[in-house]
User: Fold this.
Amino acid sequence: MRAAFTILILCLSAFYTYAAFVDLTFLSSTGRLGPGFFPRVIGVGLILACLVDLAMQLSRRSEPLPRSEYVGTVVFVGVATVIFVLAMGFIGGHAAMVAFMFVTLMVLNRDRWLQNLAIALLLPLAIYLMFDVWLNAAIPRGSLLEAWFA
Amino acid sequence: MELFANLALGMSVVLTPTNLLLLLTGAMIGMIVGIIPGFGPSAGLAILLPITYGMDPVGAVMMLAAIYYAAMYGGTITSILLNTPGESATVASTFDGYPLAKQGRAGPALVMQAVASFVGGTIGVILITLLAPLFSQVARSFGPPEYFLFALMGLLLLVFMISEHRMLGAISALIGFALGTVGVDLETGMQRFTFGSAELIGGIDFIPIAIGLFGLGEVFYSFYVGIHRSQSGSIVQYQNERRFWPEARDFVDSRVAMIRGSFLGFIIGVLPGAGATIASLMSYTVEKSASKEPEKFGKGAMAGLVGPEAANNAASAGAMVPLLTLGIPGSAATAVLLAAFLLWGLRPGPLLMTQNPEFAWGLIASMYLGNVALLVLNIFAIPLFVQIVRLPYRLLAPAIVLICTIGTYSVHASMIETWLMLAAGVVGFFMKLLGFSPAATVLALVLGPLAEEALRQSLTISRGSFVIFIDRPVSLSIILATMAILLLTPLLRRFRAAD
Assistant:
């Protein structure tokens, strides 16, 4: 798995380095070091480091990854977070927060629906009071809510 | 005399009801951040940075700094009561802290760790007060070559001393550098790696990356290792103990360890990249070697608890010196603090103390008061923190995800940055799982633009010759110092191996 991750970084580094060599100049029009100088150094360094790491992985047995019986939980929380961010743009931050908290808590903290409901309502309320009321910071209203007010 | 006048100025800034409240809030939050296992000060600072946007800059930075050093206090409570360090820098506190608790001496251990943290933190701030103006004075003679070398030194030391796999640490740092090159090149005005996107012209913002890598990535990783299923039932019941307060012999036996740990920790803390974890582990080894009864270490020696405790608190104070006087962070947590400074238009560096004395001395003065507040909190609010230790992670984690997401969005009201944070969270999870170093990425992202600017300026001055880096005595000294520390790295890594 580590090799796959390193190969992914290697591919991205190759693309970055290609862009640094093709799109960016080494010297500026005034003859000073240009915008491509540093990225080229970084890009080449990244490719070399990835290659060395891959060679090291091939030459010796890498340590096995810690096994986990909670991969499903990680995937669930990740997917729930993606849906939460998507929902923020649609139903607005306030409703999305309540829904996200309630759904995740119902899965992670089973059979305690009253406790889950209380947290799902009180925590978003606290966040609303802190961000929206006290700090005057933005919480997304969502396209549905904006259409309603329009 | 000028020193006292500066401190008085700082105190006048801190001693307002709002700033005192912010300081106490920061201390309280930092304690909680320290208590939550796997959730370090870098994550706490990154996640809470957005909530300080609407605040007065001085108060906000005081609060963030308090979160940073209070995390060291909080991390030890779980080390003693649960044998689980809340923070990596408090690992050494489990060696003797937990055995003390098991012997029915949890109360004295908790009080002594609070006193040691206070002594370490306060000695650290006294040393900052004395040394920061001198460092600023010296740093005024630094030019671009020295700044470039300092930035490089910080990253090299972080990669070589902290990262478990050096090559993966180097890759992580280079990724941070690469991310730092996205956006408009300030010298030529040319767009780099924007691929026509208007959102990328301003560059990749530090906040979503830091929140994603440290906050969300950490939550995913904690679920992966099953922290949400771990029981807090094994917590030592210190309330049933016969005696809560330490005895006079506890102070007598450990007073030298406390002072020694404080000075050692401060020196290690000033070194970029080394940090509080190495300071505490080194202090533990030093105390064990210096003790007349080394066989007691690991079985409940008070000196084995207080030395590392004083060291990690003094190290977190020491790490503020390069940040305040050079504007160069030596760790991921101080990189987040630097981002906070820049957010409010404050550029730390040699001129900070003369151009913004209210801010610089206000921050230093707040650290004196913060340590006093933490001493009191640590002793009298232990029952409260024990309740927080008992709070199940399965309830805490969704709340952290919520704050990460809303916090990121609230900075620039940007959905793109929110998605970026999410992507950084996934990458952060894999980095942590596979042995890469998210801390090196974040530090390089902050230092990258600074290092690039300094490198290009240096080479312009020297007309393209790299000799400029060895021609200047200060540059040469930095190179030699870095090489010396790197040669000592195997020794320092031995302390790390105890982790």
User: Anything to note?
Assistant: Chain A touches chain B through 66 residues (CB under 8 Å).
